[in-house]
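haha ok so turns out i had the wrong file open the whole time. this is the CORRECT one, sorry everyone. sequence first:
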Amino acid sequence: MSGNMTAQCALHKHKDMFREHEEHKYELRRSQWKCNYCGKIFRTEAFLDTHFENRHSDHIPKGAEVCLADYCDLIHCDHDHPLRVKHEHNFFACKPTDVEGKRHLCEAIAQKCFPREEGPDLANMHDFFVRQFCEAHTCSPARQMFPDGKVGFLVLKALVLFQSYTALHVTNYVGFR
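then structure:
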């Protein structure tokens, strides 16, 4: 299991209820999205998402009960961060108690997904996750890693892909012995 995200992790790919749907989206051009289940074409990704919900909800795997968007406030993929309060002068004030709570939740997820005590690979992934996501929960603008949000989600996707690659590589390596 070296290098793998644990199955108890809420961010594990097998718990992602919309993973199958995301893998069956195809952007033909800027304003055309195709459903790869049935071939229908939609003007926006939002219409395609509604179509998936109405017509293809049977493709959500059993046991997949997590919507990764529920973790956006922890992994910084949202644009209007809920920890900041907009003021009349169009700047954001940070709530230290909320930030500390989010950081604590983030660190708990890191420990559940990548338990440090289960080997050096998981310890490295744990440290990476904490540095990239948890340490960004601060009121210090210099330490906020993803102020616009998009980068955080991309880093999480890269982390999940890395975990999948590592699992495949380890499986193939062990298979040759």
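The CA atoms of residues 75 and 133 lie 5 Å apart.
again sry for the mixup
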